[in-house]
Amino acid sequence: MTQKVLLHACCAVCSAYTIKFLQNEGYKPVVYFYNPNIYPQEEHQIRLNELIEYSKKENFKLIIEQYSPSDFENISIGLEQEPEKGKRCAKCFELRLNKTAQKAKELNIEHFTTTLTISPHKTSKQIFEAGKSAADKFNLKFLSYDFKKNDGFKLTQQIAHKNNMYKQTYCGCKYSIRLTNKPLA
Ligand code: SF4
Predict the structure, then answer these.
(1) Which of 116, 171, 177, 178 maximizes ligand 1 atoms within 8 Å of its Cβ, making it the mutation to test the pocket?
(2) Which residues pair with 121 in a beta bridge?
(3) What is the residue with the minimal CA distance to atom 6 of ligand 1?
(4) CA–centroid distance, residue 3 to ligand 1 (Å)
(5) What is the CATH number of domain 3-176?
(6) Which pLDDT does position 181 carry in this prediction?
(7) pTM tops 0.70
């Protein structure tokens, strides 16, 4: 039987290659959307809608957590001025991966991981630390894949382009909103 993995997903673009990668490794990904960091709610809904569409196209199971921005607000107090890749991001990863581990435990899925490492704008070391700490808390296994390796970011962009996916222009929280139109994913 194929082993399940709970895949925390930040958006459809980052999920595209990640899902295929895990399938090629012999896993069956169950995708989990929990991103209270995304601001404003409309943006959260746009990213979620895109992932729902993709789940229908690719036929994978998607579990959606309710939008709860106060979860993120609570952990970012005092860290508002931190740059991207700083302490606020470490807390943001901890928040999302702790919740993912909790959900994996509930679902009796032994392995979990996240799409977050596919982005060249994030530090994989911070994500791995958050994932391993969450795994220890719940006695689970975190898969430390650095999805950006081997052209992962480029490949996910190609799948997104082919599927005409929405590409965000900032990471997610209100502090990461920049005056740019360049897609970040
Ligand atoms: S910049 Fe991105 S990773 Fe960092 S706190 Fe904001 S949403 Fe989270």
Answers:
(1) 171
(2) none
(3) 173
(4) 30
(5) 3.40.50.620
(6) 45
(7) yes
